Amino acid sequence: EESTESLPSVCFTGACPGYSRGQLTEMAKGKYDVKDAVTKDLSILVCADPNSGSSKLQKAAKNGTKLMSYDEFLATLG
Length: 78
Known about the structure:
32% helix, globular
C-alpha cells in the first residue's frame, strides 16, 4: 500500500458525464487521494454543478476547499 499522505485529497459529488465513480477513482490513483466525504483537510471537491447547493458543496465552501469541475479535474489527469 503506497503512502497517500503527500497527495492532494479529492472527493467527487454529482455525476460525471461519461465516467462512473469507480472509473474516476481508478484514474485519480497515484495523483490524488480519493475520499468519500468532505472533511476539513480535503484539498479538492470535484463537482458536476458548483451551484447545486448540495450539502457537500456547502461543507466544502465553509472549509475553504477548492472546487473543481469534472472537466478541470480530467484535464489535471491528462
